[in-house]
Design brief:
201 residues, 0% strand, mainly alpha
Length: 201
């Protein structure tokens, strides 16, 4: 048996917790409560921490980033490092906060782009290792390309090469691969190839 009934229940409960936490649009609520602005009317209209920063300044933006990262860290960290979820059980638990964020029922399925929650999920899964690799790749790529979507996708691809080269848990590689696909979807309007394939304006 791949999973015992108790481990299946643990995975299910933390997947549900992660989705529910991920669905809370902290950036939207925080900006509305502090400066009285709707961040969906700011910048690119994304209800995420970057637009919270634009609308409310760096104090609001930093707190929004912290909350969006934390809503993934908490359920994933508890599941993996306290309740012993391992292997393929990590997949639904680590994906759930981002899926909740991107397809938030509280925003009628029109949530954010999920980058902060993905970083939070990796903090929960690997603590320092993968988040450090991601940040060390992302910063120079963004400074070089000046295009957020392309920089993020290249970062994900290179981080995936890192996981495969070092022979990390196969579930980690599959998780990152699925997250890359999700990032491509949430950034589809910024990617000319996807715009043409999906016939977006």
């Amino acid at each position: 048996m791949l999973f015992s009934p108790s481990s299946l229940l643990t995975v299910f409960l933390f997947t549900l917790l992660g989705f529910c936490l991920g669905a809370i649009p902290f950036s939207l609520y925080l900006t509305r409560w502090t400066v009285g602005r709707d961040i969906r009317q700011v910048g690119d209209g994304n209800p995420g921490p970057t637009n919270a920063w634009i609308a409310g300044g760096w104090p609001v933006g930093l707190l929004a980033y912290f909350l969006d990262i934390s809503k993934a860290v908490v359920p994933v960290l508890l599941a993996v490092h306290r309740f012993g979820v391992r292997g393929w059980g990590i997949l639904p638990v680590a994906l759930a906060p981002t899926l909740g964020h991107v397809f938030s029922p509280l925003l009628k399925g029109r949530g954010g782009k999920g980058l902060a929650s993905i970083l939070g999920a990796w903090i929960g899964v690997s603590l320092v290792e993968v988040p450090l690799v991601i940040l060390l790749l992302l910063v120079p790529l963004f400074l070089w390309l000046r295009k957020s979507a392309l920089s993020v996708l290249l970062t994900g691809a290179l981080a995936l090469v890192y996981l495969l080269a070092l022979g990390r848990d196969p579930a980690w590689s599959v998780l990152l691969g699925l997250q890359i696909l999700l990032i491509a979807w949430t950034h589809r309007s910024e990617l000319p190839v996807l715009r043409r394939l999906l016939r977006l304006p």
